Amino acid sequence: MNISGELIAFFILSVSAIGGAVFMMNLTRVMHMALALAFTFFSIAGVFILLDAPFLAVTQILIYTGAVSILMIFGIMLTKHKDEENPPSFDIKKLWSLIGVGAFFAVVLWIIYQSPFFTSEETVTDFSVKMLGKSIFQQYMIPFEVTSILLLVALIGAAVLAKREEKRK
Amino acid sequence: MNLTSYLALAAILFCIGLYGVITKRNAVMVLFSIELMLNAVNINLVAFAKYGMVPNISGQVFTLFTIAIAAAEAAVGIAILLALYRNKGTAEADKYNSMKG
């Protein structure tokens, strides 16, 4: 395999994404976990740029590293957490879940490397933002509108759920 | 770059997220791990959009929808978590066992 710039960029981005995720699993302070996962989301945005999806990369940074991370940090701050999680004890439950997830991962990876994925001959597909907009607002118009309704319902539902209940007389 | 590298990266991230969902005790971190799993799926969708058998922009459109749904899910999840915290006084997922038979 020849070393290209794309390969180097992919290597760096995937190492930082996986590293952020692994740090998220191993850190003890909840706030540090949130920051590590924000770093992972940022690296995934870089992967999107490698895959010719610049609009998605910007959306990823705006929504995940911006909005969702801040939302989660609010969630952490509004609930009383023991600042240090319990020291990582290695009990039998963790061992079994590690074995299960590891087996699942091995099977998935085996399937990925076994299946013959046909890569396309035509590589000049237009992935511009203009095409994305045309696709959303012509072919996927109805799902787009349904998504907007869902966002509205989720907004109202979240506000109602998180509202403090009045004391019933 | 070929398709399998991206699929392998997505599989690794998905499995780390799955492990987090199973083992984390803080409910906020469980929600965060679910977001990580959704992101891994997004990588798959975008990779197939570029390197699949029929390269098509639909994969990116699906990813946009997934991001919107995931954001809504995070907001509702945090709201449910806050309501639960107000009632039970803890954010640990193990303690939410009042529906246990």
TrEMBL record, chain A:
| Sequence similarity | Belongs to the complex I subunit 6 family.
Task: Keyword check for Electron transport, yes or no.
Answer: no
Q: Which GO terms describe its cellular component?
A: plasma membrane
Q: What class of enzyme is it?
A: translocase
Output the superkingdom of the source species. Bacteria
Its primary localisation, in coarse terms, equals: membrane
Task: State the protein's name.
Answer: NADH-quinone oxidoreductase subunit J
Where do the TM regions start and end? Answer: 6-27, 34-55, 61-79, 95-113, 140-162
Q: Which keywords belong to this entry? A: Cell membrane, Membrane, NAD, Quinone, Transmembrane, Transmembrane helix
Record localization = Cell membrane
What's the Enzyme Commission number for this chain?
A: 7.1.1.-
What are this entry's molecular-function GO terms? NADH dehydrogenase (ubiquinone) activity; quinone binding
Q: Does the keyword Transferase apply?
A: no
Q: Name one Pfam family in it.
A: Oxidored_q3
Reaction catalysis annotation: a quinone + NADH + 5 H(+)(in) = a quinol + NAD(+) + 4 H(+)(out)
The record gives the membrane topology as: Multi-pass membrane protein
Per its database record, what is this protein's job?
NDH-1 shuttles electrons from NADH, via FMN and iron-sulfur (Fe-S) centers, to quinones in the respiratory chain. Couples the redox reaction to proton translocation (for every two electrons transferred, four hydrogen ions are translocated across the cytoplasmic membrane), and thus conserves the redox energy in a proton gradient.
UniProtKB/TrEMBL annotation, chain B:
Provide the topology term for how it sits in the membrane: Multi-pass membrane protein
Keyword annotations: Cell membrane, Membrane, NAD, Quinone, Translocase, Transmembrane, Transmembrane helix, Transport
Cross-referenced Pfam families: Oxidored_q2
> Where would you find the membrane-spanning parts of this chain?
6-22, 29-49, 61-85
Q: Which residues form the signal peptide?
A: none
Localized where? Cell membrane; Membrane
Record-stated family? Belongs to the complex I subunit 4L family.
NCBIfam families for the chain: PRK05715.1-2, PRK05715.1-3, PRK05715.1-4, PRK05715.1-5
Q: What protein name applies here?
A: NADH-quinone oxidoreductase subunit K
Organism field: Thermoflavimicrobium daqui
